[in-house]
Every structure is written in C-alpha cells, then in structure tokens.
Amino acid sequence: MQRKNTLIGGLFLLAAILPLSALADAQEFKLANGMRVIVKEDHRAPVVVSQVWYRVGSMDEVNGKTGVAHALEHMMFKGTKAVPAGEFSKQIAVAGGRENAFTNRDHTAYFEQLQKSKLELALRLESDRMHNLVLLPKEFAKEIKVVMEERRLRTEDKPQALVYETLMATAYQTHPYHHPVIGWMNDLENMTADDARDWYRQWYAPNNATLVVVGDVESKDVLKLAERYFGKIKPVALPPRKPQSEPEQRGIKRVTVKAPAKLPYLAMSYHAPALRDPDKDWEPYALAVLAGVLDGNASARLNQELVRRQQIANSVSAGYDLIARGPSMFMFDGAPAEGKNVVELEAAIRGQIEKLKQDGVTEEELQRVKAQVIAAQVYQRDSMFYQAMLIGEVVTAGLSLNTLETRLAKLKAVTAAQVQEVARKYLVDDRLTVAVLDPQPLDNAQPVKPAAGGRHGN
Fold it and tell me: How far is Cα 98 from Cα 114, in angstroms, rounded to an integer?
C-alpha cells in the first residue's frame, strides 16, 4: 500500500530505526540568505551524497493546480541557459554519479551521489537551477503529458493505488493531504507553464531550502562551497503559510472503489497525531511502537494471527508516519485469502485492535520491537543516503536537528501501558475511514499504453 509518495518506502521504519549515533554529530550552518546547510561527515568510503530539500510539496498547492509541485520537479531537469536540457543528468553520469528527485506531500528534494571530489559539480548544478531555470511553454507542454501518463500508469491502472488515493480523499475532509501528490487529472490537463513558473518563483529560494551533505568530506570545505554557489542567490518573500487543521471526524467513513482487478483489497486509516515536540511528546513514539507490535516482522501480530493461524488474509500490514508537516494517519491494509472477503478481513483486523486494547502488549513483545529498532540501526548506519534522507525529512518537517539525538531514547522509554493507551485513544471508530476495492472483470480494463518517457519524479 502506498502510504506516502516518497522515493523511499516504509517511512515508519526509516523514521524509527535510523541510527541516531550516526547522525548526532551532524553540523548545521546558515547562509546569510537564509539557506540551511547540514553536513554529516562519514569517512568510511570516498563518496558523498548531496541533497537539496525545498520545504514545499503538494500540501502547499491550491484547488485547480494540484500536481504542480511534482510537475515542476520534472521541469527542473529541462535546463538553464548555462546547462541545457539533458546536460544536468549527463554531467553527473560522466562524473560517475547518479541523480534523481522526488516530490512528497511535505517537500520536494533533489539528490546526487558521487565520488567525493565531484561534490563541487553537484552544488554548482543545483545552485544554477535554483534560480536560473528556463521554463519554455513548448517543453512544458511535452513534459506535462509525461506526468499525465505517469498518473495513468501508477494510479489509474493500479487498483490498489486508486483505493489509496480514494481513501486519502475521503479521510481528509479539508486538509490538502486530501489531494494526490501527482495531482488530479483534470488539473494536469489544464496546467500551464505559467503555473509551474509561478510555483518556482514563489518557493524555490535559498531561504526555503536546506542543503544536506553526507560523506567523506570536511564540514568547513562544504560550507565554503555552499557559500560560493548558493550564497549569492537572493532570498524571496515566501507566501504566508496559514494553519490548516483537519476538523474532527464524526463517525466511520466508508467508500468503495470499482476497478478491474483479480482480487479484492482493503485499506483502513485512523487519524493520529504526528510528532510536534520531540522532547515533550510521547504519543507519536508509542504509536510507532504500536505499529511495530502489529507489523514489525513475520512474527508480529497481524501476520501471525491473520495470515498464518486464521488464514483470513493473504497479506496484511500496518504503518504509521511519525514525521509529517500535517496530521498523520495510522494505517492498515490487506488482501483477503481465497474464500474470504474484505468484510471478514476488516472484522479480523478490528478484532486484533480490540484484543490489544483489552489485553495490552506483553513485555516480551515490547522488548522484541525495541530490539528490532536497535538492531536495524547497525544496518542503516551503512547507508549515507539514508542518513541524509532522515536529516532532510526532519528539518523540512519543521523539527530541530536535535530530534535525531532524542528519538532513540524516547522509543526505548515507551511502556506497554502507553502502547495500550494510544490504541484505545486513536484506533476508534470516530477516527476511522475504510476503503475497499470491488474487483471488476478484467475484460473491462483498458490496455495499458507504454510510458511516454521521463525518468525523474514520483
């Protein structure tokens, strides 16, 4: 199930298990124009990861222009006067690196992974397109067709993706998380180069950006390069961001999606809080542990009970996003086993929720989940890219870099009673939205056309 439109899936695991010890000594700087620069030295290999994060995503869009954040991400590879279309990727490839980008509800980010001596190339190219992008109507008209085809292939031709999109549009009544990151098709069909240009001028500025560099570098050298290439770019007056809270839900919401498919599918979401004060909040940490109890590994409750023992589901999962600029959700999804249906699967999932509310979590389960969190850090420490990802996600969500130093201790401190308490408080009917796939005969499906091209973007 697609919980977030990010390059990296499984955000709960990324948020909960990345090694804080590997990130605690990251150094943060701020240029005179407001751009943040965060450097994490990691000298185990002669490589470097460079990421530029813009604190703008689909949640900042307005009705009629949904998808513009993602569309502009595509256009950021279409060239400047100094670096014509296609040259950005070509220069990175010639240098032996890789690059791409991703758009999320909360942010848009661009990255390069290179040999350490090539960091200057990445920063030069990123700074150039931060303020010199050429947006030609002819190029936009071609690229928006690529985006529309991407929407067809990734959403409209994927029944489970349609269910997820419908679930979010139903669960969020007013918050802009209601809209899909890729945008509604009608908005894409009517989008213009001016829409993308306005978005670029409003949000792509150093005072709305964070440069994250992780690798075999010296912090002082990275700062010098950042000042050389980004320091002269002028800040802009950013549009005001008005508070956007979701009104309280007043009962279960249900929606059915009919689409050509072989099997039925179920998705459930409960409104839940995201992390706001890393030092004082405890509920988000307890919700993260709760997700691990239900779906931490093959021996977790949902898989053990519903797939193996009761054989009600072919697959079932749970997840929770700890970090978000907007409100979060606690999610479930699954496919019923042969001879079972979504009604039985929903009842079984809700049965496991009620059992947890009534009986709580055993100390053995709690310790197992915490052990998984700690053990996974050893593995995640090997990835410079994931280190940079977590840093960028935390700071663009408006949280302090210190969050990385406190998270592990907070997760370790979660008690069985707290896990039971958040289950009782948040996994309730008045917070629940249920979406089901009603599979239609595959004979009704339209043939899938090949993609029109385009490698960048999510």
Answer: 7
Q: Is 73 a catalytic residue?
A: yes
Residue 129 φ then ψ, to 5°: -80, -10
Report the range of poorest mean pLDDT among 33-42, 193-202, 412-421, 439-448: 439-448
By DSSP bridging, strand 47-54 and strand 108-115 are antiparallel
Residue 268: enclosing H or E segment and its boundaries? Answer: strand 265-272
Exposed e or buried b for every residue in 295-313, given b needs 16+ CB within 10 A? bbeeebbbbebbbeeeebb
Residues ≥6 apart with Cβ < 8 Å to 208? 34, 54, 55, 56, 236, 238
β-partners of residue 334 are 266, 316
pLDDT tens digits for 7-24? Answer: 223 333 333 334 444 455
CB 437 within 8 A of CB 265: yes
**302 close to 290: Cβ distance less than 8 angstroms:** no
Question: In the structure encoding, which two tokens stand for residue 1, read together?
Answer: 């199930």
Euclidean distance between CA atoms 266 and 333, whole angstroms: 5
Cα–Cα distance between 84 and 77 in angstroms, integer?
9
DSSP 8-state symbol, 454: -
**Local confidence band at 445 (pLDDT 50, 70, 90 cut-offs):** low
Write down the pLDDT at residue 417: 97
Cα–Cα distance between 426 and 271 in angstroms, integer?
7
pLDDT on residue 262: 94
Q: CA dihedral in degrees (138, 192, 69, 78; nearest 10)?
A: 10
Residue 240 has pLDDT above 60, yes or no: yes
What local confidence, expressed as pLDDT, does residue 377 receive?
56
Q: Decide if 355 contacts 304 (C-beta within 8 A).
A: no
135 pLDDT more than 90: yes
Task: Please identify which of the residues 73, 150, 165, 283 carries the catalytic annotation.
Answer: 73
- Is the model's pLDDT at 2 over the cut of 70? no
